[in-house]
Each structure stands twice: as C-alpha cells, then as structure tokens.
Amino acid sequence: MATGPVSPRAPQALDGEGQGRQPTAAGQAHARLKAMILDNLLPPGAQLLEGELALRLGLSRTPVREAMVRLEQEGLVAITPRHGMRVLPIAAADMREIYEVLTSLEPMAAELLARRPEPAAGLGRLEQACGAMEQALAAQDRPAWAEADEAFHLGLAELCGNRRLAGMVMQVWEQSHRARLFTLHQRPLPARSTAEHRRVLEAIAAGEPERAHALYRRHRRRSGAELISLIERSGVAWL
Amino acid sequence: MATGPVSPRAPQALDGEGQGRQPTAAGQAHARLKAMILDNLLPPGAQLLEGELALRLGLSRTPVREAMVRLEQEGLVAITPRHGMRVLPIAAADMREIYEVLTSLEPMAAELLARRPEPAAGLGRLEQACGAMEQALAAQDRPAWAEADEAFHLGLAELCGNRRLAGMVMQVWEQSHRARLFTLHQRPLPARSTAEHRRVLEAIAAGEPERAHALYRRHRRRSGAELISLIERSGVAWL
DNA sequence: GAATTCGTTTGCGTATGCATTGTTGGCAGT
DNA sequence: ACTGCCAACAATGCATACGCAAACGAATTC
C-alpha cells in the first residue's frame, strides 16, 4: 500500500489542525508551505522572499508573512531580516537533539497509555499500524514501512491523552521528516524496530506502564543512535 | 532578595530570545503582551480585540496581530475569529499535562548534563540557584525561593546542550507560571524539593547520568502530584 | 590596484483601507 | 411572552501603500 516512491503520505495529516479546516488564506499558505517543505519541493537551505512566495501562492504578502511566522515557530524555517525565509537544514546534531527529545517524550506517552483504566481499549489504530509494519517488512517495502512507523508514533502521541506532549512529538517529527526519508533507503530493513514496536504495544495492552516505558526508551535509544551514526557515516553535513 | 510580592522576576528573561533583540514593533508587542500575561495584568479568560490592544500599545494592528499569532503558538492565548484573543486559563488538567512533559524532559536534561566530558564544569549557575533556594528556605521567603527554583530549572534546560529540549521546557514553564505563583503561598515550605534539587545537582557534578535522571524523575513525579492535588483541593477550576 | 565611500535598489516593517462575515439586537408574528 | 428572522454594525482578514534601512555596486581617491 505504498503511496509513492518518495513521499510516504500526505504531509497535511502531520499538522495538528485535524479536520477543522479554515479557508483563511494565511492558514492555506501555512499548510501549503509546510507541505512543500516536507515534500522537499523547497529544498533545505532555500532562500525565499516574501514577495516571491506571495506571487507563487497567488496571495499578498500579509498572509504569507503570517505563515512564515508560524513556520519559524515550528522550527522549520528561519526568518532573516533581509533575506526572507530560509528552509532549515537538518544536521546530525539536530537529529541527536530530536532523538533525545523523543527518547524522553515517547516512553512517557506509552506509559500514560498503559496507565489508563482500560489499557487495551482504543488501540486499534496502533494494532493496525503495527500489522502494517510487519507486512511491509515482509514485503521489503520501505515506504510502506515508514508510513506505518509514522502512523504508530503519531498515533501513540495522540492517544496518550496529553495534548502538549502530542504537539511536541509532532513538531520534532516534522522537523526530522526529511532526514528519515533520506535514511530510509540506506538503512538495513528495520526488522528489529518492527519487533520492538510490537513488544511495546503488547506491554501497553497488558497495562504495564513501567515495562512499556522501559521498552520504548530502549527502542528509541537504539534506533536513534543507529540513525545518527548512519547520517554521520553517510558524510552529508545536512539534509 | 525577593524582588516583589507577586512577580518573582522580570518575565522578559523567560523568553528564548536571549540578548540579541531587535526593536521591531512586532517583537516588542510580543514581549510586552507576554509580560502582561505572565504578570497577570491580562487575567486568564480576558478577551482582547486587535484594535484595542493596538491602541493600548500605541501601534497599528499589524504588529499586534503578529504578536498574537506568536502567543497563540506558544500556547498562552487562543485566537477566535471574531472575538480577538483570549488569555488561556490553566486548569488542573493542564497542570497534569505540563508536569508529565516536565517529568519526561527535565530528567533527560540532567542526564545529558551529567554525561558531558567534564560534568562538574559550568555548573556555577546551578550551584548559585541551589544555594539561593536553601537560603530562601531558611528565611521562609517564598518569592525568593520561586525565583531560585525557576533559575535552577531553566538553567538546567539551557545548559543541557539541547536547544529543542530547552525551548520545550521553557514553553510549558511559561504556561504554568501563573499557576505556580498561585500555589506558592498555599503550599508548605518546599524543604523537600530544595533538598532534592541539591541531590540532583550533586549527581550531575559527580558525572552519574543514570542517578541524576532517576533522582530528577522522582522529584518531578512527587512535586507534580503534590502541586496538582493542591490545585484540585483548592477548588478553583482554573487559573 | 585596492579600498572606501556614496548612491541606488530592493526587501521589509508598519499603517491603513476595503470587503467579508459573524453577531447582536430589535421587530414582528404566533 | 416567546421565538424566529432580518438588518445594521463591528471586527477581522487581506491587499496595498509608504518610508526606512541594509546591501550591492560603481566610482573615485590614495
């Protein structure tokens, strides 16, 4: 069920706006620019002027400017006074930061989920994602695996009941989107990660918060270290 | 050394802009509005229109609007289409979320700090904060204690070397600023918290990441639970 | 030949006007 | 008296205009 060769899923689903769509020009500009950045249509390092973007999006500078401010606060671009906005590249150091944050937050999400009164309820989404990962692994379909991986991680963050935590996970997830795409075709087939996801899910369903926390933490530490050394060894300074 | 009865410190120091500030009107509007919110000059629930704020700040609507967007993304206000911005109240549920996030992130910061090559170096700021806390505790000076507590936590986040983690800690710290101020005069003197901070600092200086992590986590879990039950028992629905 | 200075251009920060949309209050009908 | 509809108003989202400041280039001088 891989959607495409490069873009594993519609990036719109990444933002926190859910379903409540507003046709406001600023919101559209924000969504479109974010999608362009995540899809690598605006490559990292690209410098884009307000007026240029306004022309490209068929809007005036005002809503574009508001979108730029939002993107800057999301950590996707930097606004420098006379040079417009610059799409921020992701270096190995950034990936280290991001994985440290995820290593903190995601085990907490798993723990919270396992601590609910009915831990096994409402995990259908994660079950499905886990199954899709295993299936994609068997089929050696990396894009499909990445899509399922994303569904698992974002689903976990959203289900844990802590909106702030979910927002933070989504934010760094988006920031690292391009880097994950880059490493996707370089790393060995993620058999181990797939199995670890399954075991975390089992611990959650069994209502064992401490075990879910510990398992997830170990998974994140290992996979993060793996990914970072992969980026460092690949020799690219940034993505 | 308490600065004032209610506002323990200048809220400007809370934002992540450091020193390099430009006198742009939008930036000033953002800083001033944030300060007003954190100082409770704009009480939670307050509805403020663009034009009204522009008049109050002596600016036009455009920079005020940009400031509002930034504040919304920082989780301090909500913008509702025809009612201007509303200062978000903090409920017990929000404090639970915030303390869960801090329980994840801050132990990681301590761990990272303890993992550096020279763990004991550069801790002067934390030493100082810890000393100020002990001194304030002995003098039963709660505002001074709160100020030192803030210096310790934000100092730790900034020193850990992970800018994203530091930004997230600061963000939820700002969100919970008013609630902490509210509980400050209700809770018993934080003797236990003071001692726990000292022990965390010792573990960091000794270069024991795992112990620093565990100690900090336990501290956060306990003090968070204490604070939340205090808010819940106080009967106020929101702050 | 190189450096410095001045002028021009371009991008941006801010202000303001306009059109759209939502809300509220009043009036009428039941 | 209550409810529903309509109209007027107000706030906002967006476009555009204006002035300033910085950067680039060219020319002149040392």
TrEMBL record, chains A, B:
HTH gntR-type domain boundaries:
23-90
Question: What Pfam families does the annotation carry?
Answer: FCD, GntR
On the tree of life, the source organism's domain of life is: Bacteria
Example of a GO MF term: DNA binding
PROSITE patterns referenced in this protein's UniProt entry, alphabetically: HTH_GNTR
InterPro entries tied to this protein: GntR_C, TF_FadR/GntR_C, Tscrpt_reg_HTH_GntR, WH-like_DNA-bd_sf, WH_DNA-bd_sf
Give yes or no: UniProt keyword GTP-binding.
no
State the residue spans of region: Disordered: 1-28
Transcription listed as a keyword: yes
Keywords, alphabetical: DNA-binding, Transcription, Transcription regulation
Q: What protein is this chain from?
A: GntR family transcriptional regulator
